Amino acid sequence: MSQTALRLNTGSPISPSPLIRTLSSPSPRTMSPRTISNLSASPSSKTNGACSDRFIPCRSSSRLHTFGLPDKPSPVKEGGGGANNNNNNNNNNNNNNEAYTRLLRCELFGTDFGFSSPAGGTKGLFSSSPVSSPNKNMLRFKTDSSGQGAGYSGSVLGQDNGLGSESVTPPKPPRKVPKAPHKVLDAPSLQDDFYLNLVDWSSQNVLAVGLGSCVYLWTATTSKVTKLCDLGPNDGVCSVQWTREGSYISVGTSLGKVQVWDGTQCKKVRTMGGHQTRTGVLAWSSRILSSGSRDRNILQHDLRVPSDYISKLVGHKSEVCGLKWSHDDRELASGGNDNQLLVWNQHSAQPLLKLTEHTAAVKAIAWSPHQSNLLVSGGGTADRCIRFWNTANGNQLNHVDTGSQVCNLAWSKNVNELVSTHGYSQNQIMVWKYPTLSKVATLTGHTMRVLYLAMSPDGQTIVTGAGDETLRFWNVFPSVKSPAAVRDSGLWSLGRTQIR
């Protein structure tokens, strides 16, 4: 078994820290309390049939009691007495201020809200401190728990705690995703062809890459590289796909063949024909291997029977470039260069669903591991949209325009998020939350279309490949037990290694 050198770019570029904008609101204006005088009209001002130019509102139905007024002392009037009366005025200031505050509360809110504690503050289980700083709000709206039909109160006694909106828990900050890959591998002869599928990561942590006429295996734990096969000068690798157990790997060739290899012993198990031209996409279920070709057909292969294939699915009018089995093996989704997304079941010769909303080739397909019958697909350059489908009824649930050609989609098994890779014109990698479709991160680094995507068995790392002949490893998803920020694993060495 020959060894080949795969060059590893070392330095892990430092991720730029995100720009955080702090929006500071201006300090509220300081408001001096009003002096209430002559609240009751004199009898002489009342005449029968006369209309007054003053309007005194009835506050019985108002909600002024829901505003927290500060217990700020009223200003002492100047010039009220001589030098002999200063001591008496100073001694009586506190009493006068307390009386004024009690009167103000009684007039505005009623007698029930006019009683004060000896210290001058309003009685309650959670009493707020007096507003003495100009940075505090003079009027602060509180939850009205006294109205009819109030569902519940935040305090034990059914009274509001006086904290208002300040007690609301702030939203959780978004999860941070490293903006730079932690590992970059050179992959010479990695083709820039939208319709091929040349990268796959097994459940046993082995990465398979099709380079020209050869397939190479890279073991993630040891960085060891093994040459699996060489198809020779007259053939080439068009697709690779591991079984779900990760011990066998299928290889689609330019001549329309499908080969099955034992990945642990690097030994070919079987070669199956049936396609007239290149086999660009493969998909394993638990027992069936499906292959899609430029000849527009999908063949179902069963290694337990001697024939090359057990059934043929005819429905696409152009090359089949996307193929994925659902997690329960009940449905097969296929995408083609005819802009169609078809859904088949195990026994049908005709598609159950024909979804034609895409306006470009459909290569990117992924089934949700969190919700049954949830399928996501992406369109090519003329479409640029990611669309979500309910395959139980064929309804489109949602869609988003990404602005670039959608090349691949993969759903995280740890959190309800998915990753998409793109081509023209931004060549970006995007992480999305579902069902809000908010962007978690946008990653850049590839200089050409990001045509290939695979996910590590632990669900935390993805590898992307492009026509720039590089493979880049990104930490984008959290682990199952820890939903905190993604951290670089010690498994990945930052030193230069040789793959090819």
From TrEMBL:
<dbReference type="InterPro" id="IPR001680">
    <property type="entry name" value="WD40_rpt"/>
</dbReference>
<feature type="compositionally biased region" description="Low complexity">
    <location>
        <begin position="21"/>
        <end position="37"/>
    </location>
</feature>
<dbReference type="GO" id="GO:0010997">
    <property type="term" value="F:anaphase-promoting complex binding"/>
</dbReference>
<keyword id="KW-0853">WD repeat</keyword>
<dbReference type="InterPro" id="IPR056150">
    <property type="entry name" value="WD40_CDC20-Fz"/>
</dbReference>
<dbReference type="InterPro" id="IPR019775">
    <property type="entry name" value="WD40_repeat_CS"/>
</dbReference>
<feature type="compositionally biased region" description="Polar residues">
    <location>
        <begin position="156"/>
        <end position="168"/>
    </location>
</feature>
<feature type="repeat" description="WD">
    <location>
        <begin position="313"/>
        <end position="354"/>
    </location>
</feature>
<keyword id="KW-0498">Mitosis</keyword>
<comment type="similarity">
    <text>Belongs to the WD repeat CDC20/Fizzy family.</text>
</comment>
<feature type="region of interest" description="Disordered">
    <location>
        <begin position="1"/>
        <end position="96"/>
    </location>
</feature>
<keyword id="KW-0132">Cell division</keyword>
<feature type="repeat" description="WD">
    <location>
        <begin position="355"/>
        <end position="399"/>
    </location>
</feature>
<dbReference type="InterPro" id="IPR015943">
    <property type="entry name" value="WD40/YVTN_repeat-like_dom_sf"/>
</dbReference>
<feature type="repeat" description="WD">
    <location>
        <begin position="443"/>
        <end position="476"/>
    </location>
</feature>
<dbReference type="Pfam" id="PF24807">
    <property type="entry name" value="WD40_CDC20-Fz"/>
</dbReference>
<dbReference type="GO" id="GO:0051301">
    <property type="term" value="P:cell division"/>
</dbReference>
<dbReference type="InterPro" id="IPR033010">
    <property type="entry name" value="Cdc20/Fizzy"/>
</dbReference>
<dbReference type="InterPro" id="IPR036322">
    <property type="entry name" value="WD40_repeat_dom_sf"/>
</dbReference>
<feature type="region of interest" description="Disordered">
    <location>
        <begin position="125"/>
        <end position="182"/>
    </location>
</feature>
<feature type="compositionally biased region" description="Polar residues">
    <location>
        <begin position="1"/>
        <end position="14"/>
    </location>
</feature>
<dbReference type="GO" id="GO:1990757">
    <property type="term" value="F:ubiquitin ligase activator activity"/>
</dbReference>
<feature type="compositionally biased region" description="Polar residues">
    <location>
        <begin position="38"/>
        <end position="50"/>
    </location>
</feature>
<dbReference type="GO" id="GO:0031145">
    <property type="term" value="P:anaphase-promoting complex-dependent catabolic process"/>
</dbReference>
<comment type="pathway">
    <text>Protein modification; protein ubiquitination.</text>
</comment>
<keyword id="KW-0131">Cell cycle</keyword>
<feature type="compositionally biased region" description="Basic residues">
    <location>
        <begin position="173"/>
        <end position="182"/>
    </location>
</feature>
<dbReference type="GO" id="GO:1905786">
    <property type="term" value="P:positive regulation of anaphase-promoting complex-dependent catabolic process"/>
</dbReference>
<dbReference type="GO" id="GO:0005680">
    <property type="term" value="C:anaphase-promoting complex"/>
</dbReference>
<feature type="compositionally biased region" description="Low complexity">
    <location>
        <begin position="84"/>
        <end position="96"/>
    </location>
</feature>
<keyword id="KW-0677">Repeat</keyword>
<protein>
    <recommendedName>
        <fullName>CDC20/Fizzy WD40 domain-containing protein</fullName>
    </recommendedName>
</protein>
<feature type="compositionally biased region" description="Polar residues">
    <location>
        <begin position="125"/>
        <end position="136"/>
    </location>
</feature>
<feature type="domain" description="CDC20/Fizzy WD40">
    <location>
        <begin position="185"/>
        <end position="474"/>
    </location>
</feature>
